[in-house]
Amino acid sequence: MLAGIGLLVGLWVLAAVSGFVLFDRDTSAQLVVSVALAAFAAAVTVLVWMQRVGWVEAGWALATLALLVVMYSIPLRDDLPDDALERIEVFSARHEDQYAFARELFWENAGRFTSPTREYLLQPQRVFLHRSARYFWETEGYMPSHLQTQLYRLMLIASGRFDADELVLRTGRCFNSPHGYLQIKHPAHELFADLWAAQTFEEYRFGQVVDMPSCDGIATSSGWNAEPGAL
Are 152 and 192 in contact (CB under 8 A)? Predict the structure, then answer.
């Protein structure tokens, strides 16, 4: 069992070493992952040859991976603190147009949190363990894209300006990593809210979504009268 779990831990460590020691955040994900997987394959080959790992350990590794997928999929708990609810009320009161309100709230959240490239390798607890909206609001800092999106959606619903079925959670892919963003139903335009893209690209405008799976630029403009945000 421990050997199987150790295989996944080893792969995670190799990915972190590849992403932050051998290379940096600006290095393409393809190169980082390729180097990590090559080193992992070589290490596993040696362990198999030494009869240290076999089918049992592989099974435990797969079971651990399945558990991580389940933990990743657990939604954010709706326990917004009073401070967050007060901000929602203030921003909502400024705008008659619900989409203008959504835009201002979007930029508020985009400036409150961070999502540096490959930060999940350094802070996996924020990806798999923490599921409290209150926790993330009060601690700020790094927040994975899918949880940032869920928090933003919870705040829009709490405002009373949007129904849940108007706010569609989407999951794309940035090469090897899931990427969360929101689709806001609009009567005339495609309207997306991609917090990670807003924190990564200065040219991002509210309504756009990152170009997937490369995630090296912006793909879609909503066509709505969106202004650039200032983070």
Answer: no
